[in-house]
Structures are given as structure tokens and as C-alpha cells.
Q: What sequence folds into this?
């Protein structure tokens, strides 16, 4: 059921991040500047650490596009890790370059370090950190930016906003909340909302569990590093049936609703209202003020490894969430309208 | 990446519900009584309507098992709809039996009726209701019960409990809360928790977004009808980094934690702690006290169609959630330990 | 990329064969008689053994269809094994019915017995035979018959014919060739051709290896029990480039070809010419005149087990091949024309 | 069921070819020289044209490997198109670089040009040629070379050989056969064989059609550009059952066969004998001595476009076939032995 399918790759300090997207029809214009804008948005939230200044991500298209338009063949996106020049030896693919520089063995609680090292049988936890790092979401944002451009052709747009940072639900105090945490070497999570508008009715389906759009979106969001809670629409906790469901009315012969508790999804399908997704991100687990942990080589209690990090990345997380949802929706749109080239798809869409 | 894959089918008042599970290794004993027990649990929660008395679901195994053990071939499960005898003509597959009896055209807000009828071009909303009904979760529970039996061979067990019903978070008042809602013709949702214990470290992975176990579980849970919120572990909202992450200590040379905020998942993998999933179910959208809606044939405002329903199905939802998570985990276990027959798998497991 | 996806199940002497097809849009009329006709064709070829008289397969639709039309929900097909009444105890799913009656331990060369018993750790080879039997192709024919009906809506039709039986390439001598083999307790294979007409241009694709239509068809055909050779179009062995390729001409402004060596596929896509697939089936490996083999329990040389069998099943194999190709093509057609219901799909098709 | 999954991308004259392989366990040593050797083999067959001198393919590993060993994260392979410097403007991804230089509109019979331009709505046939070109098989060879290295850890090896070129089945005359064709501006196909040795018993399965190893291999081979015929083992045409099947004997308590007509596959599974695959490649459809065709813009009869090409590429095709089969087998091996890191897998293997 994947018409828009993709694989991503790349380590945090390796040569770069790559994605191959297979299934984009021919004849779509891809605007590389729009991709780069989302990459900037991902990097520019308040609370990000020093690396954001080094990288300034830019995407390169390696295949699948000619003279600005897709060919129907797989589209390859590449984001160079500009920091790689400082890591060439440490992250070398060659056996002869082996070095223990920058290796570490102190598990960072909340990260993949412990379970990852058990699973993949690694003692140098850098071998886990490098891929489990949220760095990889940069290329997911790039893929999602392509998906968004596809959605735009169908007049579908999106935005996101931060609802809460740490304990603070008042937007004007977000910066000071982050400053305070930074001062104490601590980190903050938060809650955000993503909204997609103008979706056609009937994306997703109830007919089989793995076609339900809410389930697919939940997977996409919960698989973003640090997300622990996903909500579709209004959290129904405490509502009665008579209060929660979005009643239907006629307005000049058109069916309308006065509420959107369902968040745009009924029966696992878009219902024509705005699609509203909320998620809670946990505080970043890399702390200057280190947590108690264990050294996996010495098998002694110690303090966790600290690698350059951010205080708060909720804004970035929201940008990633937009991207991830856009991929799910682009797949549904391409399945719905069929067609192998843009002209054909638009004809089917405009009927 | 699906080693344990399955398709389900069946309408609410059709002949029955079927599932084919492909990928169970040979030599597993399947205990049909254990499947039936979960089917009973699904039906027996307080607040269920009259149909639960009619059905008394029992599963039949149609293939893939001989003398109590799996053959390695696809396992077919079938649950007869005992009510079908009253619906034979209404739900007939034959064109010549066409009847408008029990057809309806008044959208039920909160259900698949509206979006489903648009998507599948149906005016008789029964053609939507029949598959979008939560009835189909019975066969998902049966599939999950098989998955649980696989997990049991690896000493993995699970339970679930209700945390909140409507506005009430006190277990001893759940029944009266439901009685009250029923009296008013209203319905209630609620929150529940599912816990799996004794999972091996390293199920799932961070290496690619669609391998993250939290994402896969979130999809499984959010695709259960009426679920709107999924949480993995403790909701991090308001926690600082220094408070949330589960620090690691040594206890007689063994790594231990004193908290489990992560709910057993770090970096998209099991970390050896209990897997803790919470979800919020919306109140059932079929209300005796009907909601405002629109008739899709007359295109007039009206009151929603009422079809025999429950007041509260949170307990059933928790049983379905156990089943759905069990399927995700069984797949991971089978991938991890390889092997084509039980003896081989257990050898790999015990090393 | 699977919009038309399905799982099948069932043992040769179990209760029956089941298939669940997920992904058929709503509003398709399914003619059950057409399915049964293909089931009869599969059973009626010259050279089939006694079982064909027992079974007289008929399909039952258990879900996904109401009043003759698909609902969009999964379609379940079931074919009862009429012989099951004689096998109830031998093929029981219950542990307490264990019996060694009809068990066997003499590997049949050419069958799955040897590798299957190693893989699934079975000593009673019936546990392998029951699923590896070609009996399971009956339900594949039923699924394919549904796919053919979908294709018919797009004016696509198919037929197959036998090219060679044993050493005989002259149709009028096929029966006597089979009679001769039967007399000697031997079996025959043969070669057949399947042709699909009126396919739209551009099904399949060259953009990624797993989208190539020739590859998908080759998998479908080679996975039919006993098929060892698959050819798309004319076998090119011995042709020069200047001879083989189908040159293009204009005829009243329309592009035409005078040859179809390519068998209707260029670049992994349909090119508007007839799709021509040939396959060679090996002789049935269950022989009255038994082969040398080994007994897996006694570990002694012996003669192979004989279970009621056919002399020649090439006609049946061709019917299965039609079905299997039809499934591949229906998937491509549904992807190409998009849409969730028949009316929408036909609108897209007719533009 | 794909544990070893990958996507490839890249145009013939674009920047390069990329593959992302997801699913390789951690701790495998990848030898880049071995990959490059297969790339050289692909380029060095007798009968290749001038481009082979330009490219001298070398692979670069962009991710997933550190200090010579896999990390468990996706492995990215990249092969630069060294010719790209001459094509930068013609193959530019940027709209402003649009040029008609090297565009063409004369369909080449036997290629994807005609069906591809219809499907993807292109008038410049270069937009089809660039991806449909067999150039893309270079990266498939690289992926397969990684798969082969995985297989080598399990002592599985492979080789291929050419059986026939054009009409010539005598190896010592292959070169002169090719020279003759070249002289006339013609092209030749041929037949080759690939053999894998030391496979464990029971890869693949009969339990569901899409698990059959012969079907999966047939897809892999038939999806190689220009392959029209796939054979598993000995073509059974003309054999009787009593002649074809590989009888089983005991030799010092070990089961042995004296023949391998089955080509190592019974019941869709490896049976412990050598896996033998044959395929026929059609003559290359790009001919110096051009074929009759149609110009898709002028809609006039004309002669086909000629782009630098080879006379015979059967040797290359055999190398690609090795690679493609190796991918199928590596997937099966990884599923069979489970495990997430090499040490664990080898433990399971050595039991």
C-alpha cells in the first residue's frame, strides 16, 4: 500500500544523510528552496545548541529530477554533514582508520545507548549514538518537504505551533523558560500541534486496521525521536458521548460542523475538517548536568556521557512531525488519484 | 519486515469474521481455549449492550494446525456471527436478495458513516457500518491471542487495567458512572493501561523510522476504533530532563533502574523494563439520545440513526489493545530469534 | 505497492481453502458463477486423477460483498474440501485426535517432502504434503477469477492454450500421449501459453526493479507448483538484434507493429500488444511407478510414497497461471486508475 | 518478509547511482574491494562499447559502516557517473538549465521508450532512456556484492558462465561471433547459468506463494533489463516423471542424489543441492544498423535513435544475475538465522 515509499540513511557525524524516494509520479516540479526552508526551520528553534550554527543544512538532488521536474524515477536527496571534515578519521568507513578517540562507554539514560549496544553488540557507544541521534530527522524533513509540495498541488497546506514548553503554556514566556533550564544545565520537552487543511474526504480507511489513517499518522509521529504521546483531535478524556462527537448541520445545502473534536478523522478517514495532531516530546536526554548511569566497559556506576546538545528542540520536533505526516498523506493522495504523471493525476483530481 | 503477517475480514452481521495469519513457525501448540477466554474478556466488560449476550464468540481453526500444533502453513481463524441467522437476507451476498430493510441514511457523527459513504460511493449507510463496526475487533483479539501464546513461550506476559471511565478515576465507582450514563442514554470513554513484562532487550530499532517499536505500537493502538490518544510510558509533559529520564544503577553487578518513565522503550527499542502503554478511548458515538445530523438521501437535518449499542466499551478496548500489541511483539520476537520451527527458535532463544 | 493484496490458506485434506483479498474498491459486481467456471476448468483437464470427481469445487463468499457488489471491505472466499468428511480425524486440529493413520515417512523426490521436513522439523511427511500439495491452487484460481472480473471491466480478456505435452507438440495427440504415460504409471509435464489482450500501455515500470511487470509475472508463474521455466514473449535464443525487436510503423496515424516477439512487454511495461507468457511445467512427481528414495524415520533406502495423483496437470497449471497473472494485472490497473469505488475508477479510466 | 531491503536510484548520465540497504545486522565486515571487483566484472565482458572505458566504476560507502564493519544502520552505496562532467547541463536538475541538446523523439523498439513516454507523459525520450538504461544495474551489482559477502560468512559461494552467444554454443567461438555481429552493426543476446553452492536446506517455502524461493528468484532475474526467459534447473520439456525427478539414495548414512534436474529447488525451497538458474537475454535493442520506428513528435516513420551502445552484454547480465540472486538469498539467510549482530547470527548458524 506504499506508493510513496522511501528509505533514509546517514550517521550524525558521517559524510551526510541520504534518502531515496520511490514512487513520485513524473512531471512534478520540485522547488529545492522550499526544502531548504524547512531544513532551516528545523534548525532555528529557540533552545538549539551550537551545532545548528555549523551545519546550515542544504539539500542536493542526486537523481530523479531533470530541468526542475520529476522523471518518475527514484528521487535521491543528500544533505552533507558539514561537520564531517572534523570527524573524517573518527567516522571513517575504513578498518585501518580505527581509533578510540571520541569513543565512549557511559550509557546516557533516555537514549538508545543501553538497548542499542545490547542489540547490536557494541562496546563503543558511538556506534549507537551516531544513528540514533536526532540528526537523522534532517533528511526526513527533506523527504517531507517534497511530500508537502505534492500536497500543495492539491491545495493542501499545513502549519504547526507550540502549545507548551516545560511547565509553561504561555507562548510569550517560552524563551525565558528555556533560558532558565539552560542555566541549570537541564533540558525541556513540550507539546505541539500540527494542522493540515483542505484534505479531500476519505483518505485512509476503516476496512483494514493497517489502512486507518490515524494509525498511520500515530506511527509516523511516535517514531520521531523523543515523542511519547500522540493525540488525534481533542483528547476525549472526561467527555461524554453527547458532548464529544461533532454534530452535523446543513448550511446552504452543504454539510457543516460547529466543532472538530475528532481532529478531522472519523472511522480512520479524513472527514473534510482540519486534520489536527498533537504530540508531547520528552525533554532531551543529553544533559550538561549529568544523570547517574553505568559504564558498560568498566561496569561501574558513573555519570552519563555529555555530547554537545540542545536545551529544547520542540520546535524542530514540530517541523519533523509536519514532514512525517505529509509523507503519510502524500501516499494516500497518490493512491486515491492514481496516475503515473502529474497531468493525469490532476485530471483525475479535477473531475 | 513482517514475519507474523495477517489479514482480517468480516462484516458485523455477515456470516462471520475470518483471519489468515501467515508466518507462524511450525511446532507451536495453540490452545483454543485461551483464544476463547480472550474473546469472552472482550465481551464481558461492564457497560456492554445486548448483543454480547447473543454472540458468545468461539473461534474455529480452519487451517494451519494439526493435532494441536502449527504446521508452518497459514493459520485460519473463523468466528461465526451467531446473529447472522436473523440477518441472512439483509446481509446476503446475492444480488437477487436486495432489500432496503435495515438500510439507513442518517449519518452518525463520530462514526465512519459520512466519510465512508463519500469514499465508497454508498447511499445505504449499512454498507459502511457493517465493516466499520467495532465487531471486527473480535477477530483481532483472536489473532492477538495466538500472538500472546507465542510470547508466552518466551515467558512474556501481559495484563491491562482501566485507569479512568468518563470523569471517574476511582475504580470502585466505575459501575455507577456507567449506570448513570446509561440512564441518560449517553456513552462514556476512558483511559486504560497495558503492560507487557519480561521482554528481551532490543526489540524494535532506531536505525530506520519504520522499525521503531514505539511507532509500530502506536499504529496498532491508534487503529483500534475510538482510540484518540496513545502514550508510551509516563506522559513527559511538565517534566524536566533531570526528572524524567530513568537513571541507571548497579545492583550486584546487574544494571537496574528505580523508575520507568520511559515505559520500557528507549531509542525505539525495549530496554528490559516493563512495556507500558496507555490509551484514551472516546465515548462510543452510537447514542440513544441522538445527535444532530444530516440524512444523506433527503439532504435534510435530522437525528442520527441508532443501532443497538453499548454504553461503555473501555474494557473491551483494553483487551483489543493487548491483542494488537501482542501481534507487534510476536513479529519482533520471531524476527529476533529466526528459525522455522519451534525447537530451532527455542534453541536460538536459550543460547 | 500492493493495492490488490491477498493471503490464502488451507491444507489438501483439511476443512477447506480460504482466501482474504484486501483492496478491492467498492461497487464491483462479482459473479460467483464465473469463479466456479474457472474452478471447473482447473479440475477438468485430461489426465487428472480420481480426486477431481470427489471435489467439484464451489466457492462461497464469506465477506466483503452485499447484494452482489463489493463493499470495499476485505472479500473472503472459501472452498470446502468435500473430501474432508473422510479425513476428519486424520486432519483434526485437536491434539487428542492424534493418530498415525495416513502418516508417511518416505520422501517423494521432486516434492517438498525432504526440504520441508528439515525446515519445519517434521517426521510425519503428511505435515508437509498437506500444504505443499497443488490442491492450494484451487483458491488461487478463485482469487484470480475475481481479478479477471475486475480486468473485464476494463475490457481486458485472457485465454490459455497447451503447446506441448510430454514430447508431443501436436494437439490432436495429447490424449493418447497422456494415456500412454498413465498405462506405464508415469507422469507428463508440458508447455503452455497464456495471453492477455487489450491491456493499457504502461502497466509496470522500469524505474525500480520490483515494479517491472515482467519480473512480477515471472514470480507469479514460477511460484506455481511444478513450473520450472517462464518465458515472456518469444524466446530470444539465437535471434540477432535486427531480427528480434518489434519495429514500429504508422498505419493511419496509429503506431503499429508487425511482430510481437517482446510478448507485449518492453522496459518492464505493457506496450499495447498482447501480453504473451509461456511456461514449462515439470511432470508430476507423484508416480505410481515409484522412484528410489529414503525413509526419513528408518533411514533406509526405499520406494517413494504414492498418494492418489494425476498423470498430467498441464491444463490445470495453465488455468492457475491465468489466475496468477490476472492478480498481478488487477493490482497494476487499480494503482493506475486510483479511486475507491467503481464509478470513480471508471471515470478515471474513460478520460 | 524483507529483512534485507533496498532502494536504488540514479540516471545513466546523472551524478551517480545510489543504493540504500536497510536491514544488514551489525558487525559484518564489508570489503569494498570485493564490491569493486564485481563492478569491474560487469564492465569487462567482451562486446561492451566505449562507455566501459570511461566509467571504471568504483563504489563509495556513505553510511552504515565504521572502521570496516556495519553498524546495523542503513548502508548507503554510491557510484559516481564519471561521464557526468560532460552531461552537467543536459542532465541538470535545475529548470533554468533546460536545453534540447541530446533530446530525442525516435522510439527505439525493444526499449522502454514508447511505453515509458506514454506512461510518464514525456516527449523528450531522454527522460525515459536515462532511467531505463541498463546503467542502473551497476548499483544493483554493488548491492548484490554486499549480499554475497554476507553469504560468504555462511560458506555460500557462486559463479556464473555463458552457455550460448547468439547462435553459438561453443565457448571458444564466442569472441568471433560477437566480432561478426559488431561488423554488421548488429547485436547479440545469449544464455547463461548461475550456480550457488552450499546453501542450507529449507530457504524459501511452499506455505504461501510469495515465499517460494523459485518465484522470488524468477522475479529478481526477469526484472534484469533484457532477460526474457528464466529457468530453474533443467528445462523439463520432454522429460517423463520417471526420468526427471532426482531420486534419493543413502551414502554412509547421508542422503545423496545422482542428478540435480530440480536445480536445487523442490517445493519452492533449497534442497541442499546446487542452486542452478539459467536465463536468456535478448539482443541489445540499441543498434547501429537502425530499426524502423516512429518519431513521437513528428509522428512520422523514421529510423530509431542510436546512443552509444554495446554489441553483446551477456557476461554483464550474468554478473547482475549473480547479484540479484544473492540479494534474495541473503534475505532468506538473515530471516532463517535471526539475530541483530553478526556474533549472534553465527551462534545461531553454528548450532
A:
Amino acid at each position: 500500500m506504499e506508493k510513496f515509499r522511501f528509505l533514509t540513511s546517514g550517521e550524525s557525524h558521517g559524510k551526510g544523510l541520504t534518502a531515496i524516494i520511490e514512487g513520485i509520479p513524473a512531471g512534478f516540479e520540485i522547488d529545492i528552496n522550499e526544502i531548504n526552508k524547512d531544513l532551516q526551520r528545523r534548525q532555528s528553534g529557540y533552545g538549539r545548541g551550537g551545532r545548528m550554527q555549523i551545519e546550515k543544512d542544504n539539500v542536493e538532488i542526486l537523481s530523479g529530477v531533470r530541468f526542475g521536474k520529476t522523471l518518475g524515477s527514484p528521487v535521491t536527496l543528500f544533505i552533507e554533514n558539514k561537520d564531517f571534515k572534523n570527524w573524517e578519521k573518527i567516522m571513517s568507513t575504513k578498518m585501518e582508520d580505527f581509533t578510540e578517540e571520541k569513543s565512549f562507554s557511559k550509557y546516557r539514560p533516555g537514549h538508545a545507548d543501553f538497548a542499542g549496544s545490547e542489540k547490536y553488540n557494541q562496546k563503543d557507544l558511538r556506534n549507537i549514538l551516531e544513528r540514533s541521534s536526532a540528526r537523522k530527522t534532517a533528511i526526513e524533513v527533506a523527504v517531507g518537504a517534497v511530500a508537502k509540495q505534492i500536497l500543495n498541488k492539491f491545495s493542501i497546506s499545513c502549519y504547526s505551533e507550540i502549545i507548551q514548553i516545560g511547565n509553561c503554556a504561555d507562548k510569550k514566556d517560552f524563551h525565558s523558560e528555556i533560558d532558565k533550564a539552560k542555566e541549570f544545565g537541564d533540558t525541556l520537552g513540550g507539546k505541539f500541534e500540527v494542522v493540515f487543511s483542505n484534505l479531500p474526504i476519505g483518505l485512509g480507511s476503516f476496512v483494514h486496521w493497517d489502512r486507518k489513517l490515524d494509525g498511520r499518522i500515530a506511527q509516523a509521529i511516535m517514531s520521531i525521536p523523543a515523542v511519547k504521546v500522540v493525540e488525534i483531535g481533542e483528547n476525549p478524556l472526561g467527555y461524554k458521548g453527547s458532548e464529544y462527537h461533532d454534530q452535523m448541520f446543513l448550511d446552504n445545502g452543504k454539510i457543516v460542523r460547529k466543532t472538530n473534536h475528532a481532529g478531522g478523522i472519523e472511522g480512520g478517514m479524513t472527514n473534510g475538517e482540519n486534520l489536527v495532531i498533537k504530540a508531547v516530546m520528552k525533554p532531551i536526554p543529553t544533559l550538561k548536568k549529568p544523570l547517574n548511569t553505568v559504564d558498560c566497559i568498566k561496569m561501574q556506576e558513573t555519570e552519563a556521557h555529555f555530547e554537545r546538545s540542545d536545551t529544547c528542540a520542540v520546535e524542530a520536533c514540530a517541523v519533523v512531525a509536519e514532514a512525517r505526516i505529509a509523507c503519510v498523506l502524500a501516499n494516500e493522495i497518490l493512491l486515491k488519484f492514481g496516475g503515473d504523471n502529474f497531468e493525469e493525476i490532476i485530471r483525475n483530481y479535477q473531475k
About this structure: Chain C has ten helices and 16 strands. The two ends of chain C are 24 Å apart (CA to CA). Chain C touches chain B through 55 residues (CB under 8 Å).
